[in-house]
Amino acid sequence: MDQVPAPHLTHLLYLHGFRSSPQSLKAQQTKAWFAQHYPNVVLEIPQLPPSPHDAAQLIQSILNNWPQLTMAVMGSSLGGYYASWACSQWQCPAVLLNPAVNPARDLAAYIGEQTAWDNPEDKFFFKEQYIEELQEMDSESLPTTAPLLALIAKGDEVLDWQEMAQRYHNAHCIVLEGSDHGLTREFAQYLPQLGQFLYALGKPESVPPTAVA
């Protein structure tokens, strides 16, 4: 009997962080890397609305139309929080890049008018009601059997790396000794490892051991 080929990634959703956009450096690096190495993978990088509730609806509208067994998510910072939620809802593999652990707490100080990192002329209003919406998306207590890989930088100047490592202690973690919140210098270096993990849908042979880099 012929051996059935193992399934591989066909659809990937990239979720950017707070005040970020699909034009962010990591988003564009991910897009270029997959276009070069896995051009048949459908990669979608939507502009997420300021409202977490609206962001959840947008994520839902995308993932509900994708093949659950061969899709995955990748998220950075607040996008990592969303990706963790999506992972728990759809049981799909996820890669988290310096993921926000408690954005309801951390973003309370940002209520009011905000500007986008990539385009300071692009402004939006972060409403008080969004804090409750973030709390509703907390997935820490939700069971998940899907593979998770977290890339965490000890040099993150925005989020506490120890809090991230503790939250995702059951995930496959790569902890960088330095770097920064945006993984500015290191992300491209780790893209092949993250891409292999996603393409193989987090199967054991593709999962790197927990490590400090």
Provide keyphrases for this structure.
213 residues; alpha/beta; 7-stranded parallel sheet; 7 helices; 9 strands; globular
Quick gist of this model?
The chain has about 210 residues and is of the alpha/beta class. It has helices at about 25-35, 50-65, 80-90, 105, 130-135, 160-165, 185-200; strands at about 10-15, 40-45, 70-75, 95, 110-115, 125, 150-155, 170-175, 210.
Describe this structure in words.
This protein has 213 residues and is α/β, with parallel strands linked by helices. It contains 7 helices and 9 strands. The longest helix has 13 residues, at 25-37. The chain is globular.
Strand content: 15-25%
Major sheet description = 7 strands, parallel
Radius of gyration: 16 Å
Major beta sheet, strand line-up: 2-1-3-4-7-8-9
Q: How many strands in all?
A: 9
Distance between the termini: 43 Å
Write the layout of secondary structure elements.
Layout: E1 11-15, H1 25-37, E2 42-44, H2 52-63, E3 71-76, H3 78-90, E4 94-97, H4 103-106, E5 112-115, E6 123-126, H5 129-136, E7 148-153, H6 161-167, E8 172-176, H7 187-199, E9 211-212
Helix pairs in contact: 1-7
